[in-house]
Amino acid sequence: MSAFLQTDLGIAILTLLESLAIIVPLLLGVAYLTWFERKVMGAIQLRKGPNVVGPFGLWQPFADAIKMLFKETIFPTGADKVLFTIAPMITFGLAVVAWAVIPVNDHWAVANINVGILYLFAISSLGVYGIIIAGWASNSKYAFLGALRSAAQMVSYEVSMGFVIVTVLMCVGSLNLNDIVLAQRHIWFAIPLLPLFVIFFISGLAETNRAPFDLAEGETEIVAGFFVEYSAMTFALFFLGEYANMILISAMTTTLFLGGWLSPIPFAPFTLIPGVFWFLLKILVCLFVFVWVRATLPRFRYDQIMSLGWKVFLPISLIWLVLTAGFLEIFGLLPHA
Amino acid sequence: MIPNLLFDVFSFILLGSAAMVVTSRNPVHAVLFLILAFINAAALFLLAGAEFLAMILVIVYVGAVAVLFLFVVMMLDVNFAALREGFQRYAPIGALVALILFVELALFVTGSTIAPGAAAARLFPTPDTITNSQALGSLIYTNYLVLFQLSGVILLVAMIGAIVLTHRDRKRAKRQNLDVQHARVPAETLTMVSAKLGAGAPMPKPNKETL
């Protein structure tokens, strides 16, 4: 059997199975994240949330999916049909392929590559294309305005996110996500790098176009932003892509700052629990904060978003980068890989 | 076998999309094909074992430069007919460049190297034991430190130049100063006036600072 796994066909089949093992739970997670969000927001706003379809409304995501599937996809007049159809696929596809490098347990990743964190950063910087293509191909000024807003916003917040990632990398001495988690055995990076952790999480909110940074959809001023012309399954793909991106950013936060699959309490009964459990638990906590923020904070004004990104986050992350480098150098803590 | 197959697929898509960049009529499509070409070039880097360069290519060119490029092309009202007018005038030069490239490619493909000993005499051979981001870093920050810093300075100058060229002092623009707004107290902004019946009250002078 192990000899077969070394052949080309064996590797191909194994990779396919590994990918399925991550994609199927991810899709289920996305479906139930919509349910989770509606339940949590319902509780925050003293409502019940979905409670009609199935016990506790548990079949609601599937009911929604079936509804979306059977609706008609409408192409606006003058739309670029090919790009109009490709855009939601790009958004959703990118949110899924990023998962290839995320370790859910020690060495449990589809691809344990040396430049894992750069791969994640590259994929998340591609996310802007789904939105900008959707906005342009719709041939509608509201969609185009929404796309421009979100493109500018994502490019701006990526800068400070990059500096935060570089600071973490300096503490680890490796670009490999597995090494990044293992470097947090003694202390999670969220504690010594607390300001960067906060900046990373808020930039994550901006990257995923979530409230309070959801100017791209801003229904009060530009109807629904970049996906105003989308209906049925093409809309559903944008919707699923947004939620998959939320889970992805939570997983990145967990891996970089919250110790990944490591147990939060480092002694016997807790370290015996499989790392996947801790990993999922930490992601769930992050997702809860995502929903909590959405239900609590009002939307930012556009110039406030820009000044927050460029005038607050960028200088702070840049200064912390220099300070961390100096600290590591003076106390001889620089990792020599 | 798989790497060879992947090489064929990626280079085929790369060449196809590169051809589409120059031939497609819609400039937005051209830029999107350019992005596809970048991504496939990154995949080829990856196959060659240069994973760091591949990721940087995607992050910098696809994630930032091409986005701005797409922005500009989408916003501009390009007149395609005017763009195509010069085609016949520039065709000979284009053909010359294509010929040179073709000869170079032919030399490369047929395996006739101009300097056979060059590969062996290379100053820094690709190391086997460390990852190539480490290898690149240890070269850039030691042997090539001056050149690296110099390229940084050139980028800084370019950035300052772009800011100087586009920055205008907008005197009439109303700017919001959060500190001034937060420092406002009711005593500065509110005045109680008793208005006479039928005559009204005199208008107080507006305070420019707290606009």
From TrEMBL, chain A:
Function text: NDH-1 shuttles electrons from NADH, via FMN and iron-sulfur (Fe-S) centers, to quinones in the respiratory chain. The immediate electron acceptor for the enzyme in this species is believed to be ubiquinone. Couples the redox reaction to proton translocation (for every two electrons transferred, four hydrogen ions are translocated across the cytoplasmic membrane), and thus conserves the redox energy in a proton gradient. This subunit may bind ubiquinone.
Xref: PROSITE patterns: COMPLEX1_ND1_2
Record organism: Acidocella aquatica
EC number(s) per entry: 7.1.1.-
Main location: membrane
Alphabetized UniProt keyword annotations: Cell membrane, Membrane, NAD, Quinone, Translocase, Transmembrane, Transmembrane helix, Ubiquinone
Protein family per UniProt: Belongs to the complex I subunit 1 family.
Reactions listed under catalytic activity: a quinone + NADH + 5 H(+)(in) = a quinol + NAD(+) + 4 H(+)(out)
Membrane topology classification: Multi-pass membrane protein
Transmembrane regions: 12-35, 82-104, 116-137, 157-175, 187-206, 222-240, 247-267, 273-293, 313-334
Name of this chain's protein: NADH-quinone oxidoreductase subunit H
Signal peptide: none
Pfam families attached to this UniProt entry: NADHdh
Oligomeric form and interacting partners: NDH-1 is composed of 14 different subunits. Subunits NuoA, H, J, K, L, M, N constitute the membrane sector of the complex.
Automatic annotation (TrEMBL), chain B:
Catalytic activity line of the entry: a quinone + NADH + 5 H(+)(in) = a quinol + NAD(+) + 4 H(+)(out)
Keyword Manganese belongs to the record: no
Membrane topology: Multi-pass membrane protein
Top-level taxon: Bacteria
Residue ranges crossing the lipid bilayer per the database entry: 6-23, 30-48, 54-76, 96-124, 144-165
EC number of the protein: 7.1.1.-
Compartments in which it is found: Cell membrane
Keywords: Cell membrane, Membrane, NAD, Quinone, Transmembrane, Transmembrane helix
Gene3D superfamilies named among the record's database cross-references: NADH-ubiquinone/plastoquinone oxidoreductase chain 6, subunit NuoJ
Pfam families attached to this UniProt entry: Oxidored_q3 (PF00499)
Keyword Disulfide bond applies: no
Major enzyme class: translocase
Main location: membrane
Protein family: Belongs to the complex I subunit 6 family.
Function: NDH-1 shuttles electrons from NADH, via FMN and iron-sulfur (Fe-S) centers, to quinones in the respiratory chain. Couples the redox reaction to proton translocation (for every two electrons transferred, four hydrogen ions are translocated across the cytoplasmic membrane), and thus conserves the redox energy in a proton gradient.
Protein name, UniProt field: NADH-quinone oxidoreductase subunit J
Lineage of source species: Bacteria, Pseudomonadati, Pseudomonadota, Alphaproteobacteria, Acetobacterales
